[in-house]
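Re: the multi-chain job from yesterday

Posting the exact lines I submitted so nobody has to dig through the queue logs.
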Amino acid sequence: MPELPEVETIKNELIPHVVGRRITGVNLYWENMVLVPSASELRARLTGQKIVSVSRRGKLLIFGLASGESSIIHLRMTGSLLIMPALAEPEKHVRAVFKLDNGTAIHFYDPRKFGKMWLVRDVESVIGKLGMEPFDPSFTPEYLAGIMSNRTAPVKVILGEQSLIAGIGNMYADEALFAAKIYPLRPGKSLSGAEIKRLHRSIRNVLDAAIANKGASVQDYFRPGGETGTAHYDFKVAHRGGKLCPVCRTPIKRIAVRQRGTYFCPKCQREMPR
DNA sequence: CCCGGAACCTGAAGGC
DNA sequence: TGCCTTCAGGTTCCGG
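And the result, structure tokens for all chains:
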């Protein structure tokens, strides 16, 4: 599922295909995906617009338009944006098609229908509540310590709160906690200064490595050209329940944290450290 | 404000 | 073979 490294990859690979292109037609097959404005108004206002930029904030893709408006897309769990020939018949799970002026089209492929879309003049109205970008220089161990302090919620849950840190989801939270040797259910406020430093470094290392591998294709993630990513080959714990820890050969455990599959090594990530 | 659980969705996988 | 249940998880909403 697209988290920061996957959305970053999609953004990078969409740019050469769409920047400078004009949208010549919009077909919507699942109108509930449009949050703002109405589906029919989005269709009308998007048609004819020129795309001037593509950027990422957290897990959101932002298409800057020549009018000054922005179209924003959240792929949620199973969404992909695929570059297709203009005449290609939309596959069963394609929820929207954006035709471009160069004989191609973007197909919004989303089996689970969780993806969302906005067309707004004020980008802040959509991204305004997002927290720090993990690669922002202001994302420091001190910032991480600040958001963990006074929290009894599991550190795994806090890592995934988009209003605090933007872009981390279920799999990269597990990977970062493994790299930092921290048990996922530890209360946020229980982390020591040394653990905060390790976690801070691990978050950046894990995300950086995943971007270098063009994202992780564990379920329905496809890049705009239809290719998968390879970051999941490097996963140490995420989605590896029952397999052996690459560090100590202990079987990886799977538990549910807030109804989410959570994978960790019971030996490398002790409930009570030391 | 904080915490935990349900709902939204559909396809895959497992049980009998 | 086929029906039924469970699971997957990003985000929002709701109750305590």
